[in-house]
Amino acid sequence: MHRGIVPPHLLRRIADLHDDRFETAAEAARRALAECPVRPETPRATARPGAGRRALRREVHDAENRTTLPGRLVRAEGEPATGDVAVDEAFDGFGATDALFRDVFARTSIDDAGMTLSGTVHYGQAYDNAFWDGRQMVFGDGDGQIFGRFTASLSVIGHELGHGVVEHTAGLVYRGQSGALNESVADVFGALVEQYAANQSADEATWLIGAGLFTDRVEGQALRSLAEPGTAYDDDVLGRDPQPAHMDDYIHTDQDNGGVHLNSGIPNKAFHLVATELGGHAWQVAGRIWYEALSAGLSATATFADFARGTVEVARRHDAADVVCSAWQAVGVWSTQPTRSSSSG
Known about the structure:
Layout: E1 3-4, H1 8-15, H2 23-34, E2 58-62, E3 72-76, H3 85-103, E4 117-121, E5 130-132, E6 137-139, H4 154-167, H5 176-198, E7 208-209, E8 224-225, E9 234-235, E10 239-240, H6 256-263, H7 265-278, H8 286-295, H9 304-317, H10 321-330
Parallel strand pairs: 2-4, 4-6
Antiparallel strand pairs: 1-5, 2-3, 5-6, 7-8, 9-10
Helix pairs in contact: 1-2, 3-4, 3-5, 4-5, 5-6, 5-7, 7-10, 8-9, 9-10
């Protein structure tokens, strides 16, 4: 199952448009909801985490507006820029993502075993999404009316490759609260990749996911905001960003695997509170707490409260437990601060 950066509820809203100004966008959204990539059957390589600190390896392919993956190889590690902006943005974005995980978390590629970072650009016709399919990233060019090219946002690249890290650590089940955690952790990684590349402090960062994806026809900054979930866009055509930031507003739905792209706003806000309260560079302490909690035997079906407890236990080693506890209380995951031995949520 591929996990796109544009949530289904937003694609459905665009697909249902009956407005001549957005005819291309509506048709593109319908295709994005319906299309499944075609991949020739090839053996999937197995990886051994900790197998050695291998050098970064990147590959970018061109689907040439078809939906067969991976497409034609157009740039590999060590080769110069191609002049195709989508190819070169994807290649550079893979490098920036690898830098965060390698330099900060001592992780050798997203599987911690030297996996080649592979991507395909120019996927489909005006394809309105980018996704991780378990082996690689795939980027659409956008419809040109609502969305531009999906390689333009470094936070999107970091987010989607972040799904690969989640897959190779906790393997969070993509449904309900564990699915929302999957999306949230990927958002955290996307934000940290962007901040690390720009050397931004928590106070300097935008905390936006997907900034630069919308065309100038849309009233909105990005797809999501970790700083203020529910405020990323407010547009006459797209409606208002529906993400909640508190458990009081948790959305119970059968769509989108139980609202994984919606309810991720709650743990997103908790991370933002921790990062800004601690100050400095968010990847140094807050990011390490989240990464270590993800990697420390977290259940694949973890709830928000389960993950919160894991982050607090890790935070004790970083002298930040009170800050982390307060953040989870602020978003309503806990009504009172739990004790070290608490098992209730």
